[in-house]
C-alpha cells in the first residue's frame, strides 16, 4: 500500500489541533486532536512512500510504534485515504494509459470522494469499461446522453434511432451541424466514438458493471438475449436509457415498448423534454421498482380521462411538426440523466429509481414524483419497493477524536 490523502478533498485547519477534510457537508470530515508530529506525518501521505518507509518516518518524528498504522486505519475508515497501487492488474493497466487517465482525472477525483475505499475511484472506472449501455434516441437529449456516457468511460454505448438529422437536432455536446441530412444513428455513433476515452473491454456474455438494485438480479446475463440485439459472446445490456425525440414517450411511456426489458430484467431509465418540461426517471429495475405499466395504471386511477387522452396523443394526431425542446433545458436533462445512469452503473441506487424528477420553464424548480408499483401490473414490483425511498451513500459530517 502507498497511502495518499485524497487530493480531491480540500484540507484546512479548523483550529490548532483539528483538521477538516472536504468542503461540503456530505463528505466533510474533521480529524482531531492532531499534534505537531502527526500533522507532519499527514504531509508525507502523498502516495510516494510505502508503509515500511512511512513507519521509519513516523519514528524519526518521535511517534511511537503503531501510531502510523493506527492513523492509516482511522483515515481509511473515514474514507479519506487513497492507495496509488490499489485495484489489481486491470487498474494498473488503466494507469499506464496516461492520456486517457489525464482526460478522466477530474472524474476519477470525484469518484474517489464518492467511493470511500482506497483505490475505489479507479476500480469504478475500470468497472465502467465492462458495461454496455443502449441509448434509444438521438435528439437533443439522447445524443448528448450517449456522448456523456462514452466520455465518462462506459465501455460500449450503442445508439438506436431512425430517420435523418434535422437542423433542430443539432446541439452543443450532441449532433453537430455537419450531421444535418445524415442518418441519425450514423451521426450518433460517430459522436460516441469521438467522445470515447477508454476502449471497450472484452467481457464474456452476461458481464455487467457494478450497477445493481432491487430485483435487478442477473439482468446483464439475460439481457444478452433481449432488445439490445447482443450476439453470442458479447456482454448483456447493463442499462437502456430511453431519450425519445418526442418527449411524450418519456412523459407517458408505452408499457408495450418496455415489455422485452421487463421480461429480460433489463434496467431502463426514461429522460426527455416535452413542451416546457424536462424529466428524468423513472429508473425501472424490473421486479423491484415501478415500471411504465405502473405509471400508466396509476395515472388512470387518478384521472379517468387519462387513457383516452394518451391514446390520442400516441396516435400522432395534431402533432407539432417540430417538438418544443428548449436547448438549455434539454442539456440540463441530458446531464442529469447521464449522472443518474452512471450512478447506477457504479453500483449505487439513484433517487430516480421508482421516481421521476421534473423541471419546468421558466422557474426551473426540480420536483419529485414518487411512482408506486401498481397492484394490477404484472411487472412483479408490488411489495418490493412500495413505501421505500432509495438510500443514498452520502456520509454525514463526522468527527474523528482521540
Which key phrases capture this entry?
seven-stranded mixed beta sheet; Rossmann fold; disordered C terminus; alpha/beta; 402 residues; 2 domains; Outer Surface Protein A, domain 3
Characterization of this structure:
- By secondary structure, the chain is an alpha/beta fold.
- It folds into two domains: 3-85, Alpha-Beta Complex (Outer Surface Protein A, domain 3), CATH 3.90.930; 130-370, NAD(P)-binding Rossmann-like Domain (Rossmann fold).
- It has 15 helices and 13 strands.
- The protein has helices at 36-43, 51-60, 67-77, 88-96, 98-103, 105-114, 120-129, 142-151, 184-195, 219-223, 248-251, 259-264, 292-302, 306-315, 327-345; strands spanning 3-5, 11-15, 18-21, 29-31, 81-83, 132-136, 156-160, 239-242, 268-274, 277-284, 355-360, 367-370, 398-400.
- The strands form three sheets. Strands 7-6-8-9-10-11-12 form a seven-stranded mixed β-sheet. Strands 2-3-4-13 form a four-stranded mixed β-sheet, with no helix packed on it.
- The longest helix is centred in the last third of the chain and has 19 residues, at 327-345.
- It is elongated and about 80 Å long.
- The model is unreliable at 202-229 and 386-402 (pLDDT under 50).
Please describe the topology of this protein:
Blueprint: E1 3-5, E2 11-15, E3 18-21, E4 29-31, H1 36-43, H2 51-60, H3 67-77, E5 81-83, H4 88-96, H5 98-103, H6 105-114, H7 120-129, E6 132-136, H8 142-151, E7 156-160, H9 184-195, H10 219-223, E8 239-242, H11 248-251, H12 259-264, E9 268-274, E10 277-284, H13 292-302, H14 306-315, H15 327-345, E11 355-360, E12 367-370, E13 398-400
Parallel strand pairs: 4-13, 6-7, 6-8, 8-9
Antiparallel strand pairs: 1-5, 2-3, 3-4, 9-10, 10-11, 11-12
Amino acid at each position: 500500500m502507498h497511502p495518499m490523502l485524497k487530493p480531491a478533498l480540500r484540507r484546512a485547519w479548523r483550529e490548532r489541533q483539528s483538521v477538516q477534510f472536504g468542503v461540503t457537508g456530505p463528505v466533510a470530515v474533521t480529524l482531531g486532536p492532531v499534534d505537531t508530529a502527526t500533522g507532519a506525518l499527514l504531509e508525507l501521505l502523498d502516495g510516494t512512500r510505502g508503509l515500511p518507509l512511512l513507519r521509519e518516518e513516523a519514528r524519526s518524528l518521535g511517534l511511537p510504534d503503531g501510531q502510523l498504522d493506527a492513523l492509516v486505519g482511522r483515515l481509511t475508515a473515514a474514507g479519506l485515504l487513497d492507495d496509488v497501487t490499489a485495484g489489481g492488474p486491470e487498474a494498473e493497466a488503466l494507469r499506464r494509459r496516461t492520456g486517457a487517465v489525464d482526460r478522466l482525472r477530474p472524474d476519477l477525483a470525484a469518484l474517489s470522494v464518492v467511493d470511500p475505499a482506497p483505490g475505489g475511484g479507479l476500480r469504478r472506472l475500470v468497472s465502467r469499461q465492462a458495461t454496455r449501455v443502449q441509448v434509444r434516441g438521438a435528439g437533443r437529449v439522447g445524443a448528448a446522453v450517449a456522448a456523456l456516457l462514452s466520455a465518462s468511460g462506459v465501455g460500449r454505448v450503442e445508439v438506436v434511432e431512425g430517420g435523418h438529422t434535422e437542423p433542430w437536432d443539432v446541439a452543443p455536446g450532441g449532433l453537430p451541424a455537419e450531421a444535418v441530412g445524415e442518418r441519425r444513428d450514423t451521426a450518433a455513433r460517430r459522436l460516441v466514438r469521438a467522445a470515447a476515452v477508454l476502449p471497450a473491454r472484452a467481457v464474456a456474455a452476461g458481464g455487467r458493471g457494478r450497477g445493481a438494485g432491487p430485483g435487478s438480479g442477473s439482468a446483464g446475463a439475460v439481457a444478452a438475449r433481449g432488445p439490445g440485439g447482443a450476439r453470442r459472446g458479447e456482454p448483456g445490456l447493463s442499462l437502456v436509457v430511453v431519450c425519445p425525440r418526442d418527449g411524450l414517450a418519456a412523459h407517458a411511456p408505452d408499457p408495450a415498448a418496455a415489455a422485452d426489458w421487463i421480461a429480460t430484467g433489463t434496467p431502463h431509465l426514461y429522460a426527455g423534454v416535452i413542451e416546457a418540461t424536462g424529466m428524468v426517471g423513472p429508473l425501472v429495475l424490473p421486479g423491484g421498482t415501478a415500471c411504465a405499466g405502473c405509471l400508466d395504471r396509476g395515472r388512470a386511477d387518478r384521472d379517468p380521462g387519462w387513457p383516452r387522452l394518451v391514446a390520442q396523443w400516441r396516435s400522432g394526431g395534431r402533432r407539432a411538426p417540430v417538438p418544443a425542446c428548449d436547448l438549455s433545458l434539454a442539456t440540463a436533462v441530458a446531464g442529469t440523466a447521464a449522472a443518474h445512469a452512471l450512478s447506477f452503473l457504479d453500483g449505487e441506487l439513484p433517487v430516480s429509481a421508482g421516481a421521476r424528477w421534473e423541471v419546468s420553464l421558466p422557474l426551473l424548480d426540480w420536483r419529485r414524483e414518487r411512482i408506486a408499483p401498481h397492484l394490477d401490473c404484472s411487472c412483479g414490483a408490488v411489495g418490493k419497493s412500495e413505501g421505500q425511498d432509495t438510500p443514498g451513500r452520502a456520509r454525514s459530517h463526522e468527527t474523528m477524536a482521540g
